[in-house]
């Protein structure tokens, strides 16, 4: 039989090895054996190189004998039989090696000889070299080595002290293995040494080693090693990341360690400790806010204030700045930017030192071609000095909002386009012109872009590129094709795979540390898709009308997988035993600030628009997400929408609608899920419930519970409380029963005791008015019963400090009136007012009337109704502005709607004088008419029929409470006649429709058929004005008779005016004619109507030429004459301001003969000159009431005034009047001023 040379050499080698390697423990050789074995293996290497030796036959032969671990190790080191080869060829090899290595480790705890120690060091070094390789280069053999460090395998073999010493030695060896990296290398490269980028086997090695120690012990050993050894910075920082990910308590321990280290560094000015502190802090911040604050936050906290470590002396300040300056050449740009944006606090006398460092840093950033244009053009809302994250995007949102409000390009944007052009072109415009599908109807963003384009603020090429990109985006969506940038789909697939692994871990009940490790890898995947800046934002501006389309696919993946992870975790454990995975998930997510804006938009869209269609799994997931958001609300920026700034959780709570039955059902489902999940989390963490439940969401719960579930309206006694089921998925079975069971929990109900969680009556009213009656979950009867219960049984007895009425019905009524007025304003200003017409307003108005009748039985000395209405009608802005005037008219209109609904008796209180006589107190009513209603009368000088009827009914009704009702009515109407003529003017105008109502009411209240004298006077004036002979006398004010005549006098009967000898009546007739003339000019009903009214005015003024009192109507100084007194109490300020236009509309149409006669009237020239001056101001200020077609009046008026000046006598003006007019016209019209001067010289010559 022929035997091969390979087999012979293998057998000889095995026999010789068996002779040389006999050892008692079967693991290690002694020094003599080790030398002989190594010499023998060198011979085998030569045979192998000569082709006379077979490794495969060697293992087959040696495995049948009793293999020794060290011999196998020498096979590996001499490259005869590698461990990888052995593990791949023989499955039993892995188990054998693990057992042998654990035996080796046990024996190492008692090693005393240098050779044995050297073997341990050598084995560990080879292991560390292997685990530090890239993931793709790591062999299965290395994994076997790592599994050896399982502490549980040593418990029965060695003592705890021995185990601690062994792993301490191992940890030190790991941290100091091959210290090849310099500090400068660590500063520049540590971003590549995060947990997610650490080789998996090195991570596993750290986990096994650190498991033996507490976090404090590991950090203490870490500090000692850093102070006494040259370290491998990669291993040190990776070890720290491992601690942070797997041990939540590491953050507080590390914070204490950094504080001590920095304090010691500044005490001894130790640069080494400074380096250690900065490297550890930066490494921790790289792992995200889930485990440690951002570097900017840590730097600001440590050095941003006067109490910082460096603030005690100049030497400390110089030490810090010198240290930071030395780091500049090696630091990544994100840290340099933090130091510039958030510089350390330096006292004013040392500011020059800081400026030197800032200058050096900016130079370095310029060399790196990194822009410092990170500050936005708008100030931070909360006044913080912090730098906004992604300021360009927030600047765009703010600019679009301002443009929508003012219809003008904000001045700040114009200034930025000039003085901050690099930022404007490189940041602001790209953020504004991000491609999207353009809407069919131009939205605010499109209008803003168009305005900038017309102002030549957008380069032509950039605008063309934007339009083309938008068209491509539209085509892609129409074709259903998503053209991603190169590699985007691959990155999304990788992200989805990471999430699938996370879901599997949830299903398998993985530990918090393993989940955190996986989340760290997810964070790395997110960071690979875009870059995040280190500087954080204080406020995130949102524009809900233009959702953020960026990162939509990523956000959908995140939200979907969060919901699925929650379901998988709930299958294994209830919420209160699921650990902190959800919180860590959210904190990791919030570490990517660029995702927050698209995340908010997506969540808002889901809750606000798609809530009804969400499955129960999505509802549970989103509810849990909202709870976690609220729990860590202090970790992320607030959200600014329009002018309000809220936390993210409170803002999302506002997305829930309660307007229809379907909206209410979803909102209740979602809120119950939030309450249930939040209660479980609060109990599991032993924290207060308010840390998990947003206040605005809880208020929606208070609104819906009582509204939809009558059983929750009655107080729940403690002995009737139900046990809450912790499995939130059971809420799907019976929503109502689940709601009652949940509401029975004391913890949930006790939230109402906190002020921020109390639903005030005013807030309840706002919510109730948002309900659409046609789609309400309650029937009309149920809604009325519910609203009566809320007002009379719930809020009325509730203390004022808790949002109730404190037993005061007037307070409840005042809140309802305020809500009604707000609702009217909202329906008028809303772009879509249809949604405000189908509200519960009729029900609340009916309830208001019921409550107000309760008020009528008491004497209201406080005038609560007038106090409330006058407060709403207070003129606080310039009514010359058309926007402010329209807003004021809307307010007055809404107030008028309320006035006609309230019981009339509330409008006029009864006063009692010193001797006990009772009379009507009409002071507040007159004040309201003069100050409020007069400003918005339409037609002019006339109240509406509803208001007039309501006010007169109040006078008649309340008069019966006085000693003599007829006398009370007469005295009241006499006061109106003197101080508030607008009231009687309106009564006279509507008398034909009023008289029957008032007669019937008076008869019913007093059993008397004869009206009081002043009411009878209105009836007499009405009849008098229709007589054939107008000269028949009646007892009535001249202005009242003139008003009657003006209304009923036909054009054919104008000649009858010649018979009227009472000049007062003629003057007031002229007043009403001028009022009608101005009204025709304002409404523009046609030139024929306007000429007819003007001719009537000319006819009247022609018969008043002998009496100059008519000129007082146009007296701009508002003298005390009765005519001026009357017009000031009847006409609005706008009508009075247009008197000059009426004056010249009449004067320019007069015949020359009449004009010459007017010149003889005292004060005519002065009145004409003053009115032309005011007319010129009207046109100069482009008054909204002056039409372009009426500019002809100004031109003709100037000619007439020049003619009047030339024809007037020298004594037509006093010297003071002439000087005043010359001064006024000097800048306005020099020719008129010169004409007045010529007359002045004539006077002087005379």
List keywords for this structure.
1246 residues, FANCA_helical, 63% helix, mainly alpha, Fanconi_A_C, two-stranded antiparallel sheet, 3-stranded mixed β-sheet
Structural account:
- This protein has 1246 residues and is mostly helical.
- The chain contains 58 helices and 5 strands.
- The strands form 2 sheets. A 3-stranded mixed beta sheet has the order 1-2-3.
- Strand 4 (910-912) and strand 5 (918-920) form a beta hairpin.
- The N and C termini lie far apart (162 Å).
- The relative contact order is 0.02.
Number of helices: 58
Poorly predicted sequence stretches spanning 5 or more consecutive residues: 380-389, 480-486, 718-733, 1241-1246
Rg: 45 Å
Shape: elongated
Mean pLDDT: 82
Strand content: under 5%
By helix and strand content, what is the structural category? mainly alpha
Q: Characterize the main sheet.
A: 3 strands, mixed
Short summary:
InterPro entries: FANCA, FANCA_arcN, FANCA_helical, Fanconi_A_C, Fanconi_A_N. By secondary structure, the chain is mainly alpha-helical. The protein has 58 helices and five strands.
Layout: helices, strands, pairs:
Blueprint (H helix, E strand, L loop, with lengths): L4 H16 L10 H19 L5 H9 L5 H9 L5 H7 L2 H17 L5 H18 L8 H8 L12 H16 L7 H7 L10 H11 L4 H14 L4 H14 L3 H19 L2 H16 L8 H9 L10 H14 L5 H9 L9 H17 L23 H16 L4 H9 L1 H12 L11 H11 L5 H20 L8 H21 L3 H18 L9 E4 L9 H21 L8 H10 L5 H13 L7 H16 L6 E4 L2 E3 L1 H6 L7 H25 L9 H14 L26 H9 L2 H4 L11 H9 L10 H16 L13 H21 L11 H16 L7 H9 L9 H18 L10 E3 L5 E3 L2 H9 L13 H15 L5 H15 L1 H9 L1 H16 L6 H12 L13 H11 L14 H21 L3 H16 L19 H9 L2 H5 L1 H9 L4 H7 L5 H17 L10 H17 L7 H14 L1 H16 L1
């Amino acid at each position: 039989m022929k035997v091969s040379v390979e087999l012979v050499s293998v057998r000889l080698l095995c026999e010789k090895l068996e002779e040389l390697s006999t050892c008692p423990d079967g693991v290690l050789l002694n020094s003599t054996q080790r030398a002989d074995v190594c010499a023998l293996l060198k011979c085998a290497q030569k045979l192998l190189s000569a082709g006379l030796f077979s490794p495969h036959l060697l293992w087959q032969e040696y495995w049948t004998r009793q293999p020794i671990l060290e011999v196998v190790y020498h096979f590996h080191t001499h490259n005869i039989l590698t461990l990888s080869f052995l593990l791949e060829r023989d499955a039993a090899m892995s188990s054998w090696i693990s057992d042998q290595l654990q035996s080796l480790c046990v024996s190492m705890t008692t090693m005393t000889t240098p050779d044995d120690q050297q073997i341990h060091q050598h084995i560990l070094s080879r292991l560390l070299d292997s685990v530090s390789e890239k993931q793709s280069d790591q062999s299965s053999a290395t994994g076997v080595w790592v599994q050896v460090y399982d502490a549980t395998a040593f418990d029965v073999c060695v003592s705890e002290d021995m185990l601690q010493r062994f792993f301490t030695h191992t940890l030190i060896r790991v941290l100091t293995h091959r210290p090849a990296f310099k500090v400068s290398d660590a500063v520049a490269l540590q971003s590549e040494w995060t947990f997610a980028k650490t080789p998996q086997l090195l991570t596993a090695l750290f986990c096994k080693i650190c498991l033996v120690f507490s976090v404090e012990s590991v950090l203490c050993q870490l500090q000692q090693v850093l102070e006494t050894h040259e370290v491998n910075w990669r291993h040190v920082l990776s070890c720290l990341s491992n601690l942070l990910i797997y041990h939540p308590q590491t953050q507080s321990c590390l914070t204490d360690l950094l504080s001590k280290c920095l304090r010691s560094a500044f005490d001894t000015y130790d640069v080494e400790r400074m380096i250690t502190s900065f490297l550890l802090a930066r490494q921790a911040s790289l792992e995200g806010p889930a485990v440690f604050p951002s570097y900017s936050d840590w730097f600001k906290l440590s050095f941003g204030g006067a109490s910082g470590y460096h603030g005690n002396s100049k030497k400390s300040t110089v030490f810090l700045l010198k240290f930071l300056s030395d780091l500049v050449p090696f630091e990544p740009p994100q840290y340099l930017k933090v130091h510039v944006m958030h510089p350390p606090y330096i006292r004013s006398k040392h500011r020059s030192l800081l400026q030197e460092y800032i200058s050096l840093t900016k130079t370095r950033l310029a060399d790196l071609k990194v822009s410092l244009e990170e500050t936005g053009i708008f100030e931070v809302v909360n006044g913080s000095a912090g730098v906004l994250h992604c300021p360009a995007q927030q600047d765009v949102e703010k600019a679009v909002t301002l443009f929508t409000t003012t219809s003008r390009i904000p001045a700040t944007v114009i200034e930025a386009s000039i003085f901050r052009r690099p930022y404007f072109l490189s940041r602001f415009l790209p953020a504004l012109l991000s491609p999207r599908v353009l809407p069919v109807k131009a939205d605010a963003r499109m209008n803003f872009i168009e305005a900038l384009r017309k102002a030549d603020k957008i380069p032509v090429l950039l605008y063309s590129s934007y339009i083309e990109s938008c068209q491509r985006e539209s085509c892609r969506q129409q074709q259903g094709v998503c053209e991603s940038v190169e590699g985007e789909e691959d990155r999304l697939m990788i992200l989805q795979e990471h999430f699938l692994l996370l879901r599997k871990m949830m299903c398998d009940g993985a530990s918090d540390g393993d989940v955190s490790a996986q989340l760290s890898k997810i964070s790395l995947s997110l960071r690979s898709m875009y870059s995040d800046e280190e500087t954080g934002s204080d406020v995130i501006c949102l524009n809900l009308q233009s959702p953020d389309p960026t990162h939509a696919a990523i956000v959908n993946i995140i939200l979907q997988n969060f919901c699925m992870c929650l379901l998988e975790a709930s299958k294994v454990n209830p919420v209160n035993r699921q650990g902190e995975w959800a919180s860590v998930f959210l904190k990791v997510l919030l570490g990517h600030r660029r995702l927050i804006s698209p995340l908010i938009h997506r969540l808002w869209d889901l809750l606000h628009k798609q809530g009804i269609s969400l499955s129960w799994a999505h509802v549970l997931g989103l509810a849990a997400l909202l709870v976690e958001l609220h729990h860590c609300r202090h970790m992320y920026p607030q959200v600014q929408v329009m002018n309000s700034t809220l936390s993210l959780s409170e803002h999302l709570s506002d997305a829930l609608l309660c307007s229809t039955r379907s909206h209410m059902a979803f909102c209740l489902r979602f809120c119950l899920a939030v309450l249930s999940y939040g209660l479980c989390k609060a109990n599991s963490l032993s924290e207060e419930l308010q840390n998990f439940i947003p206040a605005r969401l809880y208020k929606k719960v208070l609104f819906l519970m009582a509204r939809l579930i009558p059983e929750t309206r009655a107080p729940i006694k403690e002995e009737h409380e139900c046990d809450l089921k912790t499995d939130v998925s059971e809420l799907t079975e019976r929503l109502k029963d689940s709601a009652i069971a949940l509401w029975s929990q004391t913890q949930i109900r006790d939230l109402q005791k906190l002020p921020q969680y109390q639903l005030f009556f005013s807030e309840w009213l706002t919510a109730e008015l948002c309900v659409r009656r046609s789609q309400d979950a309650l029937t009309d009867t149920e809604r009325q019963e519910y609203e009566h219960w809320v007002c009379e049984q719930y809020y009325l007895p509730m203390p004022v400090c808790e949002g109730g009425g404190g037993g005061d019905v007037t307070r409840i009524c005042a809140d309802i009136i305020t809500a009604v007025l707000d609702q009217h304003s909202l329906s008028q200003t809303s772009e879509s007012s249809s949604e405000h017409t189908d509200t519960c307003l009729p029900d609340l108005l009916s309830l208001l009337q019921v409550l107000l009748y309760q008020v009528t039985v008491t004497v209201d000395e406080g005038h609560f109704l007038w106090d409330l209405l006058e407060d709403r009608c207070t003129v606080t802005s310039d009514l010359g502005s058309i926007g402010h005037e329209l807003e004021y008219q809307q307010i007055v209109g809404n107030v008028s709607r309320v006035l006609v609904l309230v019981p009339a008796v509330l409008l006029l209180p009864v006063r009692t004088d010193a001797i006990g006589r009772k009379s009507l107190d009409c002071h507040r009513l007159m004040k309201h008419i003069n100050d409020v209603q007069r400003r918005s009368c339409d037609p002019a000088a006339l109240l509406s029929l509803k208001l007039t009827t309501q006010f007169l009914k109040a006078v008649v009704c309340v008069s019966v409470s006085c000693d003599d009702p007829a006398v009370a009515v007469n005295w009241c109407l006499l006061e109106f006649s003197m101080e508030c003529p607008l009231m009687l003017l309106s009564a006279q105008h509507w008398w034909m429709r009023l008289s029957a109502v008032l007669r019937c009411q008076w008869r019913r209240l007093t059993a008397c058929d004869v009206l009081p004298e002043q009411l009878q006077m209105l009836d007499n004036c009405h009849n008098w004005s229709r007589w054939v002979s107008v000269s028949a006398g009646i007892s009535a004010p001249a202005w009242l008779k003139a008003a009657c005549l003006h209304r009923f006098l036909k054009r054919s009967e104008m000649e009858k005016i010649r018979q009227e000898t009472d000049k007062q009546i003629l003057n007031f007739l002229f007043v009403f004619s001028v009022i009608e003339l101005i009204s025709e000019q304002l409404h523009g009903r046609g030139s024929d109507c306007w000429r007819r009214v003007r001719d009537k005015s000319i006819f009247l003024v022609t018969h008043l030429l002998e009496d100059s009192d008519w000129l007082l109507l146009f007296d701009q100084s508002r003298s005390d004459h009765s005519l001026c007194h009357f017009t000031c109490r009847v006409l609005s300020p706008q009508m009075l301001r247009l008197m000059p236009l009426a004056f010249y509309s009449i004067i320019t149409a007069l015949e020359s003969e009449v004009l010459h006669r007017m010149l003889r009237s005292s004060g005519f020239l002065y009145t004409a000159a003053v009115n032309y001056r005011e007319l010129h101001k009207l046109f100069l200020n482009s008054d909204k009431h002056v039409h372009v077609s009426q500019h002809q009046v100004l031109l003709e008026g100037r000619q007439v005034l020049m003619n009047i000046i030339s024809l007037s006598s020298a004594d037509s003006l006093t010297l003071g009047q002439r000087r005043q007019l010359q001064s006024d016209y000097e800048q306005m019209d020099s020719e008129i001023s010169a004409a007045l001067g010529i007359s002045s010289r004539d006077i002087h010559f005379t």
